[in-house]
Write a structure and sequence with these properties.
Largest sheet: 4 strands, antiparallel
Distance between the termini: 65 Å
Number of strands: 8
Structural class: alpha+beta
Radius of gyration: 20 Å
Number of domains: 1
Strand content: 5-15%
Number of helices: 11
Length: 321
């Protein structure tokens, strides 16, 4: 694990904002947890079933498609619709959701540069039955399969944009790209951060993975989506109680100046390394159960409406002579 806490590297307890530090999943640079990453990777490669789905990583030699010399010009709204159609309706890509956000400096890893103005975030669904087998190689294989699908979709979209004359670069997990994807996905309207440190989507719950495309094509930012998941997590202990290494906090933590849900890196990673990846917290999340997310969205909406009504009554009573 190295001599410095991964929580310290992540900025746990730091009151001031700063750019994030690469802690795991980079193949192009040296960092403290690289030995642990190499151990995990070696165990995956040595497993006969996991080895079959390992498609992207240090042996990946992807070359971006050619950049057309004459950029096609469209209004931002038309680009958004065209990108949505390409990514959601494409017979081979068919991602489950997509969002758009302006790149923020505090998403970019220290030592990395992002000159593009926009990021397109893609969401790809994981099979809940496979994920529910966590911790197991079967769950790990499903995670990798969907990372592969997200990577393929992101690169295909980037090549499509380049074919229209606009620079773009696609990226998918688990390899760390130049920037954090979770805060970008929140800004792009793909969900709220859950107690387990991952996103909760209003339809997919936590059973999905992210990929991204950085570009300068003019776009329109998506609206953040607030549907009650954060409020739900305050009163739920399902993932916390199910986590074998007790890595999930019951309350939000200060991380690089932001109060947020956070998972103890120093407890989570060793267990992850010993179990061919984990994902228990994502599988047991009530929002992840097939069909439950839509129902919970309705439940939380009614709860919020009742709360607003009570607040209005109190405010009305206080204002009465």
């Amino acid at each position: 694990m190295g001599p410095v806490s991964g929580n310290d590297l992540n900025g746990l307890g730091e009151p001031e904002p700063r750019r994030p530090t690469v802690v795991m999943w980079s193949w192009t640079e040296s960092f403290q947890h690289r030995p642990m990453q190499d151990l995990i990777s070696r165990r995956h490669v040595e497993h006969p079933e996991l080895r079959k789905v390992l498609r992207y990583g240090d042996q990946d030699h992807y070359e971006p498609g050619p950049l057309a010399s004459a950029p096609q010009m469209r209004p931002p709204e038309e680009w958004v619709e065209a990108i949505r159609a390409f990514s959601l309706d494409h017979p081979e890509l068919a991602v489950e959701d997509i969002g758009f956000a302006r790149v923020q400096p505090d998403w970019i890893y220290d030592g990395h540069d992002v000159s593009e103005e926009w990021v397109v975030i893609l969401a790809v669904e994981m099979d809940h039955e496979e994920l529910s087998m966590a911790p197991s190689w079967q769950a790990g294989a499903e995670v990798q399969r969907q990372y592969n699908r997200g990577t393929y979709a992101a690169r295909a979209l980037a090549d499509w944009l380049r074919g229209h004359g606009h620079p773009a670069r696609g990226h998918g997990g688990p390899n760390a790209g130049p920037m954090l994807l979770v805060p970008a996905a929140i800004e792009a309207g793909l969900g709220e951060l859950g107690k387990h440190g991952s996103l909760i989507h209003p339809r997919l719950g936590s059973r999905f993975r992210l990929a991204s495309v950085l570009t300068d094509v003019p776009l329109v930012a998506s609206a953040p989506s607030e549907f009650g998941a954060d409020d739900f997590c305050w009163n739920c202990r399902v993932c916390l109680d199910a986590c074998p290494p007790a890595a999930i906090f019951s309350t939000k933590q200060t991380v690089r100046g932001d109060e947020k849900w956070y998972v103890d890196f120093d407890r989570c990673l060793p267990y992850f390394a010993e179990t061919h990846s984990c994902g228990i917290c994502l599988a047991v999340c009530p929002w992840s159960q097939p069909g439950e997310a839509e129902r919970l969205v309705g439940t939380m909406a009614r709860k919020l409406e009742r709360r607003r009504a009570r607040t209005a009554e109190v405010d009305g009573a206080d204002a009465a002579p």
